Amino acid sequence: xxxxVSYLSTVWGAVWxxxxxICLIILAALFTYAVTVESGAMATIRKGLAAVSDDRRVLxxxxxxxxxxxxxxxxxxxxxxAIPAAILVGIGFDPMKAVLMCLVANTTPTAFGSVGVPIxxxxxxxxxxxxxxxxxVTTALLELAVTxxxxxxILLVLDGWRGLKGMWGWLLVVDAVFLxxxxxxxxxxxxxxxxxxxxxxxxxxxxxxxxxxxxxGNFREQLMAWAPFGFVVAVLAVAALLPPxxxxxxxxGALVLAAGFCGGLLQGLKAKRMAKLxxxxxVRYRKAFLTIITVLAVARVLERxxxxxxxxxxxxRVAGEAYPFVATAVGALGGFLTxxxxxxxxxxxKLQADxxxxxxxxxxxxxxxxxxxxGIGKMVCPQSIAIGVAAAGLGAGGSKAVVRKMLPWFxxxxxxxxxxxxxAALVF
Length: 428
Fold this sequence. Notes:
Layout (H helix, E strand, L loop, with lengths): L1 H38 L1 H10 L5 H19 L4 H12 L4 H11 L7 H13 L6 H11 L1 H16 L8 H22 L4 H17 L8 H7 L1 H14 L3 H4 L4 H15 L4 H14 L1 H20 L1 H13 L4 H15 L2 H19 L3 H15 L4 H11 L5 H30 L1
Helix pairs in contact: 1-6, 1-14, 1-15, 1-16, 2-11, 3-4, 3-6, 3-8, 3-10, 4-5, 4-21, 5-8, 5-21, 5-22, 6-19, 7-9, 7-20, 8-9, 9-10, 12-14, 16-19, 17-19, 18-19, 18-20, 18-22, 19-20, 20-22, 21-22
């Protein structure tokens, strides 16, 4: 009886953590996006992005890397693939290449996606709450090489080696303006803002540079369209400055939700309509929320029963000291199976930390490797591919073609990430 009560308590704790803060943050972010769609602001944003440049490569960097990373940071759950892919197809890009570019780009942003939910889940699952700030920095530094390479991969997918001709200046600028706020936010602010600030920096820089000498459109109209997202960035930035003992009583999800409501009111939506929109968002994503709750509960029970530790011991016995070289692949397996960086961390976060302890390396490093692998696994995840195919209108058979074309990119990025993790474990 005592054992049953203990397991029941474990499940209840997992359910509560899944609901608060994880599902609350995701719901708030998705609601904010829904507000911009309902008010017509998203159509205005798309129009403004499409008018920036005549060079398709510049537009690809703006929409896939800038907007895509921003949407991953804001909402996650496929928005970073669906929205950019739909915009690209709408302005004349090849649908297949549009989907491939979005999938390739949506790797490293997963770590700080959905206003930090994956990494929040990771340090809880891996038992690294006391080292949370260090985990943020470790994750950003570990992913640095793959992140810096992402804009290059976008152009290679778009037009092969020809896509890079004459674009190295743009690529260096895009990398610099993304990585600087991304790294600084991870180190000094927290896990909520790296993707958001990096994506905004890319969009603002490309928008300013590419539109010199061109008509820049209605600035006030664009400012109003971006208002809900602007409010989110503002409230999260202010919250990050609060003392730690105060900050823990200010729920991130509630802040994002309030910002979304304020943005909607500014754009002319009625409070009653937004309340209905919030409920519609709950209903639309109820299966995703239920999946998160279930996966987290199962993972906690497996941990409580010692199954995860047993699996970690088996992996370490097989791989030995070389385990760090396969740690990223374990995370990629989780990303492929669940379609979620969050769920991959729930499944394998503790396993990675236990494996690191067993071989005498940093638990934060291998936990970060799991998160990096989860993002890479999403490149070939059926869920991510289905979202991209639907958004681009590829129709029947599109998913198989995307998988076939995506596999070489997946293998190359996973190999790079595995080598980086293995070398980092040897050096540090």
